[in-house]
Amino acid sequence: MAKKILLVEDEKILGEMYREKLTQAGFEVSFVFEVSDGLEIAGKEKPDLILLDILLPREDGISFLTKLRADPETASLTVVVFSNYDDPETKKAALNLGAKEYLIKTNYTPQQIIEKIKNYLE
Amino acid sequence: MSFYALTALVNAIAASIFGPVVLFKNRKRTINRIFGLFCFLIAVWSYSYFFWQIATTEKTALFWSHALMAGAIFVPVAYLHFVLCLFDKISEKKKMLIAGYSVSFLFFLANFTPFFIKGVEPKLNFNFWPEAGILYGPFLLFWFFYALYSVYLLFKEYKTSFGIAKNQIRYILLGTIVGYFGGVTNYPLWFDIPVAPLGNWTFTFYLGIITYSILKYRLMDIRFVLGRGAVYVLSFATTILFAFGLSLLNNRYSANLPLNVSGSLILITSIIFFQPVFRLFEKFASEYFYYTFYSYQTVLIDLGKKLTQVLELDKLSGLLAETLMNTLKLDRAVILLKSADGSYEIQKNIGFKQENGISLVKDSFLTAWLEMTQKPLVAEEIALIIRDAKNASGKENLEKLRENMKKIEAAVCLPLLLEERIFGMIVLGNKISRDPYSGEDLELLTTLSSQASIALQNAKLYSETKGFSQKLEKEVENRTKELQSAYEELKKLDKAKSEFLSIASHQLRTPLTAVKGYISMILEKSYGQVPEKIEKPLQNVSISNERLIKLVNDLLSISRIEAGRIEMNFESQRIEELIASVTEELKNVAKEKNLYLKFEKPKLALPLILIDKEKLRQVILNLIDNAIRYTQKGGITIKAKIEETVLRIEVSDTGAGMTDEELSKMFESFSRGTAGARLYTEGAGLGLYIARKFVEMHRGRIWAESKGKKQGSVFFVELPVGR
């Protein structure tokens, strides 16, 4: 059975790129632009992994993580943060909220990211 | 010798002592000279009186009668002269004085004729009392007129004066009236009125008072004078009574003792007796007359001691002013200290009305005067000083000063001096009792003011120093606040800058990520086969894109290093894996330049090491990337091994090599090898600097070695193991 991945990414081009790559790699991808939509799908679909961007419209990724962890339904979901926003404090906050990793998108090709997340999809 | 002869002798002796004493005290002073003249006249009168009394023939009696009148004639006019001088009114009544002296002189001439004294004849108990001549009546009128006029002047001054002056005039007036009344008892017998000259002796009292007032310029504390006098008189009287009693006893019971033996015994006993009697009376007198004098002296001495123990200016001024007020029983006291602008600021004021101008004191005639005389200025004395002043402007200034002191109701100005320069003053009001300040008071105040000067000066310096240090503290505090807020501002700016950099790099990275991602996907054939001739250009785009990504990363790192905002996240890692992944990443770049890139893994696995993976990755990436850039032929070899306590990574290349000069600058910010400048112009020179910084943050060491140009280079990184 295909693993479900929730992709929260507001950059349309990047989001489509990742969705394409992930779909090709055999994942079932839900792609949303906003925190609220992401939380809704997370609650409904309970994805196997969430790929979360940080700088998002209205609410940011940290807010997403906080709310996700606050809801017992979604509290234990696996999250990998990937963002080009490289801020030490944000990174620390994300890791404290249980993100598995804080990847800088630009340092990885989509293929490399898939290899990374595979570690968390056993 | 009769009682009258004795009193005359006493008067004579008193006059011949007081006169010269006063005269020689200050011969240049008019009032002293006039008093000298007055005493001389009294002496002439009294000595003649004495010889007249003891005269045995009518002829000598008549001669001494003329002689005594020669003195007496001038007495009232000389006394008026004295009184006018006392109130500084000589010039005002000049005509009257000249007339008086002229008429007196005419009577003086007439005195030697029978028109003045007809002769002498027995009257009452006197053998040779003079008989008034025809001119004697007019003379008496003249005499009384001048005598009464002096008394009138005194009385008038007494009425209009107040305070100390009033007290002083009261004493002079009393002395004058007593003296004249006594003197006048001489006259009735001249006209056959049977009244004995019983008051004759009072002249001594009269002279005494005036002498005292002149010598001290002020009538002083009359209680003290009277007290002292009374002690002596009573002691003498008691001793004489005692001796008299002894001789009486001697006469009655031991008449056989010869006078020379009994007399000596009585004398010795009396001398021994005098001392305890004197002390006894003195004790009484202390209690009733000048007891307070001693007690406040003690208080003032104590105050002097206390002054040296207080350092606070306010406290010290308060202590000084209050003690002076309470001890001397004054109505007011103020302490003024000179400030930098020459005005005198009130340090402590009790009782002075500020609206009267005490707060307006500044450097002036007064302060100059105090500095010149170096002693207290007594308001009541100013009149005397004016009288003696040589020039008109001095007189005028003193006159103004007197008015001012009167206006502010000040009795004494006590200068506070330091090395003879005035730096303040204590101004005292009158005694509540209206008693004048005594000489002892003033001496004491002078002593005290010199002690107070030192204490106040110290306190002033202390308070200035304290004020200065407080000001300094305040200043430091303000500056610190300014720095604090500047720092806060900078911190905000710094945060903004750092946020800006994070955002800016995010914005740059987004398209770079898209390029990187899509090209990688194309090359991975996500979109189907890639024509061979397209593959190469795509590789080049990818390489260029990687360079841009690295540049953004470096810039972000640099800005964080410079801002000191780098945080280390140490994890246990296997260094081989990290090196392998970086090598893999750069494989294409090397391949593109036809260079080999090999990582010679150690045969035995290296121990786990605590590193910040991201940062060390950047270090290795930079070193290898650098090596690729500066190498045109051959390739790059990477080794990793344990050397005792350190893990060493070596990146050696077959490239351009470096001179010693380049080696020394290699790891500085924005420096590039000269070879690089020529061969590879895109480099920003950031890589090695960042590498150095990151290695240092691992407490490691980074350096490079080269045998020289075209000899290739080796870059070393050493990291401590087992930490």
Features:
heterodimer, A: about 120 residues, alpha/beta, five-stranded parallel beta sheet, 5 strands, about 45% helix, B: about 725 residues, alpha+beta, five-stranded antiparallel beta sheet, five-stranded mixed beta sheet, 14 strands, about 10% strand
What does this structure look like?
The complex is a heterodimer of chains A (122) and B (723). Chain A is α/β, with parallel strands linked by helices. Helix content of chain A is 43%, strand content 18%. In chain A, helix 2 runs parallel beside helix 3. Chain A is globular and about 30 Å long. The model of chain A has no long low-confidence stretch (mean pLDDT 91). Chain B has 723 residues and is α+β, with helices and mostly antiparallel strands. In chain B, 63% of the residues lie in helices and 12% in strands. Chain B contains 20 helices and 14 strands. In chain B, strand 11 and strand 12 form a beta hairpin. The longest helix of chain B is centred in the middle third of the chain and has 85 residues. Chains A and B meet through helix 1 of A and helix 14 and helix 15 of B.
Radius of gyration of chain B: 58 Å
Q: Regions of chain B with pLDDT < 50 over 5+ consecutive residues?
A: 217-222, 675-684
Alpha-carbon Rg of chain A, integer = 13 Å
What's the SSE pattern of chain A?
EHEHEHEHEH
Beta-strand content estimate of chain B: 5-15%
Helix tally of chain B equals: 20
Spatial strand arrangement across the major sheet of chain A: 2-1-3-4-5
The quaternary organization reads as heterodimer
Strand content of chain A: 15-25%
Name the pair of protein chains with the most residues at their interface, and give those residue counts: A-B, 23 and 24 residues
Strand count of chain B: 14
Overall mean confidence score, pLDDT of chain B: 81
Helical content of chain A (DSSP H or I, runs of 4+): 40-55%
